Amino acid sequence: MTTEQKFPDVDDMKKKLAERLKVKGEENEEKKKVFMFNLEKASAEYYDNLLNNIYNATDYMKNSMNTNGCVYVSVPTQRLKWGEEEDKFIPWHWLHYGFPDRKKKGWWFRDTKFWDEKNQMVFRKLQKVCREHNYYLYDISDPQKGNKTLLKLSVTRVDEYEEVDLWHDLNRQIE
Length: 175
Hints:
This protein is of the alpha+beta class. The protein contains four helices and seven strands.
């Protein structure tokens, strides 16, 4: 440090840093609003897709010669629109299981901080809807046994599904 250089005034520095922090906070708040809006729209699309497939499963139970009270529900695997850009989509499983955790690698490490009791994940909402109509919706997918997502709809509670310890816990009913 030469004799010409000197420390900036600490109060000026604090003021500058506070202003930057405020601007950054406002930018982050705007990004969060856009993210939550996109999450809501994509969740609504996934909800409608999965609900339609649940109705297809009940139609199959009702109209087929099937005597089994537990049937598979097709998984709506189409990509979901994300944001206003024409070509921006996300995979369905980000809304089903949560967003991939950036800190950890692996299918079962998911970030679910954007959902809570009030704003539940789509599958949990539909489990609740099914329970209100005396049906049971299960996700019995187990990546240790294969890479398929398996959803089942039953007219009775299936303890066999609920007793298995699966990473996503969507095989259990929430009462």
